[in-house]
Specification:
Number of helices: 4
Strand order of the largest sheet: 1-2
Distance between the termini: 29 Å
Helix content: 40-55%
Radius of gyration: 15 Å
Number of domains: 2
Oligomer: single chain
Mean pLDDT: 81
Number of strands: 2
Order of helices and strands: HEHEHH
Length: about 100
């Protein structure tokens, strides 16, 4: 959960966090953490991804610009490639 705290440092703790509620979402641990820090959880309704267009756009870019360009042979390589892409996305890449 350290990454969540890091992302909140510049702006403060949010009133709520919106997220997917899919099977890939580690809901129990995140929900517990949110409750402990008095942050509300808002979920995108199933079958209506455009309720959170920002993350849908990010997922599309992440898939096209990172995951689909490199054959990730192991976890170590995946971490290096993804971290490089994150750095590029957050600091160098022009945002539309």
């Amino acid at each position: 959960m350290a990454k969540l705290w890091q992302s909140m440092a510049p702006y403060g703790v949010p009133e709520h966090i919106r997220s997917d509620n899919g099977s890939e979402f580690v809901a129990q641990k995140i929900q517990q953490w949110l409750r402990e820090h008095q942050i509300k959880a808002l979920y995108v309704d199933p079958g209506i991804p455009w309720q959170n267009g920002y993350i849908e756009s990010f997922h599309s870019r992440f898939r096209d610009e990172c995951l689909n360009r490199v054959w990730l042979l192991n976890l170590r390589l995946a971490r290096v490639v993804i971290e490089d892409w994150i750095q590029h996305y957050n600091t160098e890449r022009p945002h539309g």
